[in-house]
Inverse folding.
């Protein structure tokens, strides 16, 4: 595994080494002053600068400015193209583009930093692609081996089938080792699920004590993780239960305190014979506290006082109604109804009286709409008087 990673790293570092400024001097002796424009067209800016440093006649402000402008434009265009390749997931193309550009502008910090940022992604991409290919190939070989064993149970395999199976077994051993390496890499990056997939395939292809031990460790860690989750869940449940009990206890205490306040208000209102206030305070008592002995005692006192008051108001309203003071009777019965809203007899009296009031109001309106009757006055005459005809 270490040798394989070393080969991969060396393959990726070769373009980097090629981008070192020391490499540009290899062809320095072949460049001539008349090649300056060709070098610029080929973006060989490092060689062009070395050429100007070798020949003072080329080291002019005009040529140096021209080199700088072209070099800046080339650097910006290369950076933009590399970003586009990176966005398109062509990481290899981006690295190759940047490595080639760094041979021409080895001092470019932006291009070097971008390549250094893309290279780890490229390595990871290579590993991912390789792992996916290995997994696909492993599944195919396992299917082929199962098919061979199924056919062998029916009839003896041919020489070609045995040879092919032997070749598959050798490849399976090789694949098993490669998958084991990828499983170990996944473990190093704490990707237990991916490691389990690679190692289980490796074990299915070729069972080894090393893979058994790795899978056993993963299983142990999984169990420990599950136990930790269960323990955490139990702790959370206990905490929630305690919190719920505390909230319930607090709610009960709040309801008890509220009941004590409301009972005091009810009692004070009863002593002042203010039954409306007493009733309004009492109905706010929480239902969980309504069965208390003190609450029941106050309720009895309130019910007796309300019954007595309602009886008196009902009798007063009846007397007013009989005396044809219907409006006042309605007011009296309504007052009684506010104390005993469920009293059907009071409700019927109020409804009947309201109908009477409505009928009286209708009669009044009809009376106002009737036109007045006008009569001619009669002149009185004296007894025995005679009317003298006019001449």
């Amino acid at each position: 595994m270490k040798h394989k990673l070393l080969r991969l790293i060396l393959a990726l570092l070769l373009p980097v080494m090629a981008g070192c400024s020391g490499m540009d001097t290899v062809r320095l002796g072949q460049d001539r002053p008349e090649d300056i424009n060709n070098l610029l067209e080929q973006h060989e800016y490092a060689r062009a600068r070395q050429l100007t440093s070798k020949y003072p006649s080329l080291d002019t402000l005009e040529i140096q400015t021209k080199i700088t402008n072209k070099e800046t434009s080339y650097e910006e265009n290369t950076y933009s193209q590399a970003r586009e390749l990176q966005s398109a997931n062509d990481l290899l193309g981006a690295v190759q583009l940047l490595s080639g550009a760094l041979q021409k502008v080895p001092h470019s910090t932006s291009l070097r930093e971008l390549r250094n940022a893309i290279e780890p992604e490229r390595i990871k991409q290579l590993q991912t692609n390789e792992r996916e290919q290995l997994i696909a190939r492993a599944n195919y070989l396992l299917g082929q081996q199962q098919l061979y064993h199924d056919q062998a149970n029916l009839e003896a395999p041919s020489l070609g089938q045995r040879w092919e199976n032997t070749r598959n077994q050798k490849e399976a051993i090789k694949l098993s080792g490669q998958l084991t390496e990828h499983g170990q890499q996944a473990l190093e990056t704490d990707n237990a699920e991916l490691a389990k997939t690679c190692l289980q395939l490796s074990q299915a292809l070729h069972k080894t004590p090393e893979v058994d031990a790795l899978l056993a460790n993963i299983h142990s860690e999984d169990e420990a993780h599950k136990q930790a989750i269960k323990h955490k869940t139990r702790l959370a449940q206990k905490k929630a239960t305690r919190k719920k009990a505390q909230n319930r206890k607090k709610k009960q205490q709040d309801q008890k305190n509220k009941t004590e306040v409301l009972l005091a208000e009810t009692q004070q209102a009863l002593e002042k014979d203010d039954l409306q206030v007493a009733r309004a305070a009492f109905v706010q008592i929480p239902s969980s506290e309504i069965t208390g002995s003190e609450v029941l005692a106050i309720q009895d006192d309130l019910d007796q006082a309300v019954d007595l008051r309602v009886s008196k108001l009902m009798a007063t309203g009846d007397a007013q109604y009989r005396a044809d003071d219907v409006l006042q009777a309605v007011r009296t019965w309504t007052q009684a109804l506010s104390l005993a809203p469920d009293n059907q007899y009071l409700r019927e009296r109020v409804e009947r009286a309201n109908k009477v009031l409505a009928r009286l109001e209708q009669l009044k309106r009809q009376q106002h709409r009737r036109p007045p009757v006008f009569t001619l006055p009669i002149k009185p005459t004296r007894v025995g008087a005679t009317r003298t005809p006019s001449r």
Q: What stands out?
A: The chain has 13 helices and no strands.
